[in-house]
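Worked Example 4.2. Consider the chain below.
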Amino acid sequence: MGRALGSVRARAAAGATVVVALALVAAGTALLLVLRSHLRDQAGLQAEVKAREVAGQIATGTPYEKLDLPDGEDRPVVVTGGDGRVLAVGEDVRAVDGKSVGKGAGGSGAGRSADDEDGEDDGARLKPGEIDDDVDFRDGSADVDGKVAGYRFAAVEAKDSRGAEVTVRAGSALAPEEDAVASVRDAMLIGLPLLLVVVAGVTWLVTRRALRPVEGIRGEMAAITASTDLSRRVPVPSSRDEIGRLARTTNETLAALELSVERQRRFVADASHELRSPIASLRTQLEVAVAHPELLDVPGAVVDTVRLQRLAADLLLLARLDAGERPADTRVDLAAMVREETSQRVADRVPVQIGELAGGEVAGSRSQLARVLGNLLDNAQRHAAGAVRVAVAREGEDVALRVEDDGPGVPEGERERIFERFVRLDDARARDDGGAGLGLAIARDVAVRHGGSLAVRTGSVFELRLPVAG
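Applying the procedure from the previous section yields the following structure tokens:
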């Protein structure tokens, strides 16, 4: 069990770690993409601002050789004419996208041609001194003072004061963006394993603490199994969670098991006691018959044998009922069964009177229901003064079979106790008459198995109530 609990903890920790890892990887990837896009947009904006600043100087008539161009590696600028010839270039800028951009060099591909992508002449729609509102963003590389790096370029079309078309292409270095993304990525690569270790550790500890009561329950159950002491109970944690409910259900199961075992022990003890008397009587009679054959009490031996047979049959039926045997699913007409069973009771001490027999079929085993009727009639015969009456009535969705005698009746405080096994209100008289205190217990068990009930409605009226067959 310890290994199983450890496996549960390991699986919980591994599962939580995998889920968190997937979530962090997805979130980290999205963060890097958003960060990269934002930094590229920011670099493009910076390049556009610088390109428009230079284009503004050109539009106001500043000579190309006097343009205020930024220097250094962060903002390379190239100004080209409509024919692609380089008119001005930032300090130390040697090449863009691998093509030389020295002043006066041929077309570098940096600017747009006289006809744009839709075939419209940009120069025709711009007047001298105007700057195009459109911006063309592209990624590229530039060689500044012998160092080649990546840039985000913004290209802006303009016309100088004389109407000459020019393209200003300014770049913003992507190195800061790449460095920022790399820094965030490195931080995530370092922090992610540490975070996963923390998640796994916390999950392990939390799961271990949550399963600690389960180990207590397991240990107590093992002790109960070893000691066979069903009176012991497992510890119930104070929390009202699934484990608490498990502990309470386990204790309820132990209580039911203890009651069942105790009931079985009493049953075995009482059965042994009941069997001992007729067996001892038979043995005595047989021993006397061996020594003195003329003294053999054959009728008494037959009575004891019949008593043993009935008791064995009762014990066998109770064992089958306790094993959960379900009755046969056949239709039984209670009124017809009463007529047939009572017609065979010709040797009863008190004749059985037949009352109203209303029609009504129930589902179940006819033999078991006949046993119930026989046990109720036997009980009435033992206690009746001079009358026993049986009737069947239809009441709503139930059929009620009632057996009544004119005896003293059952005291109100004993009306449930008489349905317990081996219980006799008059032990001496019941034993002399051959009763073992099982008839009413069997009758109620059969009634319950058939979905009905058996109870004493008044002092001497026993009522079997069963649902009508659907």
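The two ends are 49 Å apart (CA to CA). Confidence is low (pLDDT under 50) at residues 107-120, 427-432. Compare this with Example 4.1 before moving on.
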